[in-house]
Specification:
Layout lengths: L5 E7 L3 E6 L23 H18 L5 E3 L1 H12 L4 H11 L5 H15 L8 E11 L6 H9 L4 E5 L5 H15 L19 E12 L10 E8 L2 E18 L3 E7 L10 E7 L5 H6 L3 H10 L1 E10 L1 E8 L1 H6 L28 E8 L3 E5 L1
Parallel strand pairs: 4-5
Antiparallel strand pairs: 1-2, 1-3, 2-10, 4-6, 6-14, 7-8, 8-9, 8-11, 9-10, 12-13, 13-14
Helix pairs in contact: 1-8, 2-3
Amino acid sequence: MRTNRNVFAGLVLGSLVIATSSSSFAGPGAAPVVKPPMKPLPAGFVLSNDGFATDLYGRLGKDATKNVFFSPASISTALAMTYAGAKGATATEMAKTMHFDLAPANLDDAFHSLLLRLDASGGKDPEMHVANRLFAQNDLKLLPSFTKVTHDSFLADVGLVDFKTAAEPARELINKWVDGQTHSKIQDIIPKGGITATTRLVLVNAIYFKGGWVTEFKKGATTTDAFTLAPGKSTKAPTMHQQVVTGYGETADAQILSLPYHYAGYDHATSMVVVLPKTADGLGKLEAGLDGKKLAGFSAAIGSADVVVSLPKWKATIFSDLSDKLASMGMPTAFDEKKADFSGITSDTKLFISKVLHKAFVEVDEAGTTAAA
């Protein structure tokens, strides 16, 4: 199975680009194929979504002085729900920026298929859970056409709250919902002041993943080693070690490693893909040419090999307000109070996007990976 979707993407500054995604390599000890694959996602949908992921990665990583980590799937899904109610220039700009290349109805169906895939594992290993929800002002009349799309395609129900007179309790309620959906890995996604009396609708996506390596790293083999940040610059990091037959490939400028997680069946195959520049100063060049096609090329290069692996243990929680980034990427009208057109959501009042808040968590250790957004 080829790569379906970058669920999480990140940068370990200086030496590693890491993405958790579906992989074509299952690895030793993986479960045998027991059923045919799920219905394929529409042609071009994967490439388009990866195009947005790499565009945003470029923006977030451009001036980064620390690690970068985010979930393209979470951001795309939340904004796809919002796009379902966009009209005119607002919709045109959003579609271009988000790489929503399919007709609206086909796009909604594609996200529906994607959500079913990502949520298919339930409580099995790996555990992957995705949930969407709308929190609306209790007297806001949402258009039936909008609630039908968000419910049928995005599996999102509507919760009624009182932003007008009880903004803080509404904020706490939303944060509590996200906390529950992510096993408390994402807490306080909306900071104090993030909800006001003028808020009318909050669209939320939550993703949780926990996977154990098919071949675990032995804790006794973990040592504190030098990690290269840039030529001549390094830091110390706890580093896991093992020799394993696993997914591996090379391109002209990178080595690609695929470490599979346990999975419950063919359609639940997941792995961590690590892309390592071949030279200590090669990360910038590799990132500069990163796009959806390049990601597909990395996946296509993966075969199988006996590999000596040294991988840092790491843990991070990173919060981002993506509003300015998304506006600068080509969708400013959606954030313009006077020009935004979300008349496909409600005819009660004129809506615009005030904030796009994103928080992502990752922990990589000898047993596997836990991630949430």
